[in-house]
Design a protein that fits this description.
- The complex is a heterodimer of chains A (286) and B (314).
- With 286 residues, chain A is an all-alpha fold.
- Chain A has 11 helices and no strands.
- Chain A has a domain of 197 residues: MetI-like fold, CATH 1.10.3720.10.
- The two termini of chain A are 27 Å apart.
- The relative contact order of chain A is 0.15.
- The N terminus of chain A is likely disordered.
- Chain B folds into 2 domains: 73 residues, no CATH class; 181 residues, MetI-like (MetI-like fold, Orthogonal Bundle).
- The radius of gyration of chain B is 24 Å and the shape is elongated.
- The chains are: A mainly alpha (286), B mainly alpha (314).
- At the A-B interface, helix 5, helix 6, helix 9, helix 10 and helix 11 of A face helix 1, helix 6, helix 7, helix 11 and helix 12 of B.
Chain lengths: 286, 314
């Protein structure tokens, strides 16, 4: 059973044919690719320096010269959005991956070694009952505002659900013949987990990660918005909203544009995640 | 069974609270600023600083500090604000009322609206109304709380000038109090409406094919009564459960909504305390928020147990 066998090709083709019938899904995929792509090409695409202030071009509405306008210090919003997106996406990805790196092994160990199950899953219950934003607040208080605090809180918010999902997916295979057989021919536990158990958890984990990523971006942006994340002048979407908040009367675009970008990004992740779930893992309710 | 469930929840919650206390303590030790310097002000001599440090106990070994901290907590002493010397307990009890008001108003808006939308979507499943409601739900779930808040402030508060956007107007039973409450509560409701509507629809569709529903229909009961009296009643349990699961998001939403609308509640108190390095206040508010989260979850478990005898097993 190779890793590709864990995702039956019929499901993949169902997904592809759905893509043809569902225009909203299409738009979301294109939007995601565009947003992620332009964030990574920010160095080339950004028309201006994102932290260069200009006294003469303060709080300008969108125009041909500044496509998305300028903020209260005369910085080009489009350039700040592009660089801010990159930071937001990187923070989310780093948080997600570190969370998965702890959560997946935990879930597999719990499923594979019944003796560990109880202790590990109760530990996950404990982490799960700690609201993510509260953890973010506490971490920001402890390590001071900054990227580290946000990544840690995003990771912690990922660990427990990832462990639960991995465990329930792994439980369905650990007692099947091919795993028992692998044990009999003398493969080590680590080899069995890596080669046979993990591939069977991938569909559920792909769905989970996609749906979760949107939530992580929201969480990270919220923490930055509260002033617990990246410090100005570094462009970050939540920080940009928070700075534009005071100018809602005179220049609403400063706050509304980064908000809209976050909304579109999270919305696309949610729509694509829903479609992936319907196709790969209909049982999963995240 | 119910007692077992309650016991299990409390047993699981104790380590959470211990973790919060530990985290709160680590926060105090790790914060780079010197609390004595904040307390003493600018004119402090080294002698005064040393005296304050020994009064606070921050010159002792970390383990001893933790022990003293725990002992103080068990005596109900949460310390005083470094900024203005107000007792943390007083400040928390002062702000918890407005936060509960906001929470109550949010639930009053979000639960009927979410369930109502879910029922409507089920009644017209597959049609345009269904798709519109589900689109609204997913947009609501994807919108950052601060965006909902800023949009409502901009449109309802500023452009229409219809409702106040800053602060609390008074107790919840006065007109001013209610007017001030509407926008923050609406903002926070958006966190719940989408998930509730989706969950109501999903679980109603699951129940809709069951035998007892077919029996009800074959007895000649009207479609509306079947949907509400038979399908919805049995579909409510997962929805109640979901509200408990969303409590964490709701808590995050409260913190942001209170900050945006300058609502004098616990969430805003926590953020202000953390951003201004007021450690005792930060510890106290975080501990209290975590405690209330634990209590909410225990309550939801109990309600689900009452609604559905099958859910009572651990």
């Amino acid at each position: 059973m190779a890793s590709s066998a864990a995702i039956p090709s019929s499901r993949v083709s169902a997904l592809v044919s759905r893509l043809g019938r569902d225009p909203i899904l299409w738009i979301s995929v294109i939007l995601l690719v565009t947003i992620i792509g332009s964030a990574f090409l920010a160095d080339w695409l950004a028309p201006y320096n994102p932290i260069q202030t200009s006294l003469r071009a303060r709080s300008k509405p969108p125009s041909l010269q500044f496509l998305l306008g300028t903020d209260e210090q005369g910085r080009d919003i489009l350039s700040r959005i592009l660089f801010g997106l990159r930071l937001t996406l990187m923070t989310g990805l780093l948080g997600l991956l570190s969370g998965l790196a702890v959560g997946i092994p935990t879930g597999m160990l719990a499923a594979y070694f019944p003796r560990l199950d109880m202790a590990l899953m109760r530990l996950m219950d404990v982490i799960l009952s700690f609201p993510a934003i509260l953890f973010g607040l506490a971490i920001a208080g402890a390590v001071g505002p900054g990227l580290t605090g946000i990544v840690i809180s995003l990771a912690v918010a990922t660990i427990a659900p990832a462990a639960r999902i991995t465990r329930s997916a792994a439980l369905t295979v650990v007692n099947l013949e091919f795993v028992v057989g692998a044990r009999m021919v003398g493969l080590t536990n680590a080899q069995i987990l890596w080669r046979y158990v993990l591939p069977n958890c991938t569909p559920a984990l792909i769905v989970y990660s996609t749906l979760r990523f949107g939530q992580l971006i929201l969480l990270g942006a919220s923490l930055s918005f509260l002033g617990l994340g990246i410090a100005p002048p570094t462009p970050e979407l939540g920080v940009m909203v928070s700075q534009g908040r005071g100018l809602l009367l005179t220049a609403p675009h400063i706050a509304i544009i980064p908000c809209t970008v976050i909304l579109l990004l999270v919305l696309s992740f949610n729509i694509v995640g829903d479609a992936l779930r319907d196709a790969l893992d209909p049982q999963l309710r995240v | 069974m119910l007692i077992n469930q309650l016991g299990y929840r409390i047993a699981v919650s104790l380590p959470v609270l211990l973790g919060v206390i530990l985290l709160g303590f680590v926060l105090m030790v790790m914060v780079p600023s010197d609390p004595a310097a904040i307390l003493a002000g600018e004119a402090a001599t080294p002698e005064i600083l040393a005296r304050i440090r020994s009064e606070l106990g921050v010159d002792r070994p970390v383990i001893e500090q933790f022990w003293r901290y725990m002992v103080r907590l068990l005596h109900g002493d949460f310390g005083r604000s470094l900024l203005n010397g107000v007792s943390v307990v007083d400040e928390v009890t002062r702000t918890v009322g407005p936060t509960l008001e906001l929470l109550l108003a949010t639930l009053v808006i979000a639960i009927p609206l979410g369930i109502g939308l879910g029922v409507l979507a089920t009644a017209w499943r597959g049609g345009a109304i269904d798709r519109a409601i589900m689109a609204f739900a997913v947009v609501g779930m994807s919108m950052p709380v601060f965006m909902t808040g800023l949009l409502l402030i901009n449109i309802v508060g500023v452009q229409l000038g219809a409702l106040p956007v800053q602060g609390r107007g008074g107790p919840i039973y006065t007109v001013q109090g209610l007017r001030h409450l509407i926008l923050p509560a609406l903002t926070l409701s958006m966190v719940l409406i989408g998930p509730i509507a989706r969950m109501t629809r999903t679980s109603m569709l699951e129940v809709a094919n069951k035998d007892f529903v077919r029996t009800a229909r074959s007895k000649g009961i009207g479609e509306r009564r079947v949907l509400v009296g038979h399908v919805l009643r049995n579909a409510l349990i997962p929805t109640v459960n979901l509200i408990g699961l969303q409590a964490g998001y709701l808590l995050g939403g409260i913190v942001i909504a209170e900050t945006i609308f300058a609502w004098p509640g616990l969430g805003r108190l926590a953020v202000t305390a953390i951003t201004s390095n007021d450690t005792p206040m930060a510890q106290g508010t975080i501990l209290f928020l975590a405690l209330s989260f634990v209590v909410i979850n225990i309550l939801v478990d109990l309600i689900t147990g009452l609604l559905d005898p099958r859910a009572r097993g651990v």
